[in-house]
Design brief:
heterodimer, A: 8 helices, globular, B: two-stranded antiparallel ribbon, 2 strands, 3% strand
């Protein structure tokens, strides 16, 4: 079904998303970011188990409630769903094509790798102070020194791991 | 109202990410394997437009910067850790949400892993605070501050650099 794949130019979509980022700062005073939401979600989950658990310095830095960024991340799910339904690129898939070509069709190894990668990635993102949205897009758009350092390290780490997972070529 | 702005901005951003196909594992690993630079094209286009827009509005005094602190220890160690994890999960925090929206359910274990990792970080933060966070703290600075050059000169140089990178990628058919 190759003919159903009609992606937009990454230059057009990227530039429009840049315009969106400017509007967001102008109208709502908010820079795009995503990783703090995972801290809030984890904190709110822990709080329902026991309020004692979130009585730690890092959770206390944040007001553990649904905020602008939390809604932004929820919105991304909805926006991607709408976009993928309008051009029929929505597809329930538990193993990405590239992974399947290399490691086969079993979903479990992909799920375990995804979970482990998720733990490491967010740990790093919170330590760095942000993810490719907060540091990468918003940081570089503001020419923040931390953005250049973090974005470079994101790619260096990623290229190293991609080489370890897929080997050369 | 803030929450409504949040979800509207997210819906449009998610829509654009999906239309450019940058949400996908294959695209993210494609970039990290240096084979398909679609996500870099998206990111640099976003950055060029947002950078010019934000600095113009800042010049008129209608917006303020919101800089993340530059501390070499956490920026570098955290950045490299993020990258290593990114190469495994194949999504970043924002794109994992979008990937789920277009039916790529392999993002779900990754999202659960990120929730677990966020919890782990929160509970180990006191130990990190007394060591890695103390390495090379420069505070909230821009590249222009660091270089001691007017920010518009740095901005124009960066736009030129980004355009050259994009031209190079096109020439290499990446």
């Amino acid at each position: 079904m190759k003919n159903t794949e009609r992606p937009w130019s990454p230059y057009l979509a990227g530039a429009l998303s840049g315009l969106l980022a400017v509007l967001s700062v102008l109208v709502a005073g908010k820079y795009l970011g995503a990783s703090t939401t995972f801290v809030r979600a984890a904190g709110m989950t822990e709080r329902t188990l026991s309020p004692e658990l979130v009585n730690t310095a890092y959770f206390l830095k944040y007001n553990l409630a649904v905020d602008w960024q939390f809604m932004f991340v929820v919105g991304i799910v909805i926006g991607a769903f709408i976009a993928s339904r309008t051009d029929r690129s929505f597809k329930v898939q538990a193993v990405p094509d590239m992974w399947r070509n290399r490691f086969g069709n079993s979903w479990l190894p992909r799920a375990v790798t995804g979970f482990g990668g998720g733990v490491i990635a967010i740990y790093g993102a919170r330590l760095a102070g942000g993810c490719p949205s907060g540091h990468g897009l918003s940081g570089l758009a503001q020419m923040s020194a931390s953005g250049f350092i973090a974005a470079a390290c994101f790619f260096i780490g990623g290229v190293i791991m991609a080489r370890l997972v897929y080997g050369r070529g | 109202m803030t929450l409504i702005y949040g979800i509207l901005t997210g819906i449009i951003f998610g829509f654009l990410l999906q239309k450019a196909r940058v949400l996908r594992y294959d695209k993210q690993l494609g970039a990290l394997r240096l084979k398909d630079m679609t996500i870099v094209k998206f990111m640099l286009s976003n950055i060029i437009v947002a950078m010019i827009g934000i600095y113009l509005l800042k010049e008129f005094g209608v917006v303020e910067l919101s800089l993340k602190p530059t501390i070499l220890g956490p920026n570098i160690v955290g950045g490299l850790l993020f990258g290593l994890g990114w190469g495994l999960i194949g999504y970043c925090p924002g794109t994992s949400a979008g990937a789920l929206g277009e039916g790529r359910v392999d993002a779900l274990p990754g999202i659960l892993g990120m929730l677990a990792g966020a919890s782990l970080f929160a509970h180990t933060y006191p130990y990190l605070k007394s060591n890695v966070y103390t390495w090379g703290n420069f505070g909230k600075i821009t590249l222009a501050d660091a270089l001691g050059i007017n920010h518009w000169i740095v901005l124009v140089a960066l736009v030129a650099l980004y355009v050259l990178i994009l031209r190079f990628l096109e020439r290499m058919r990446l």
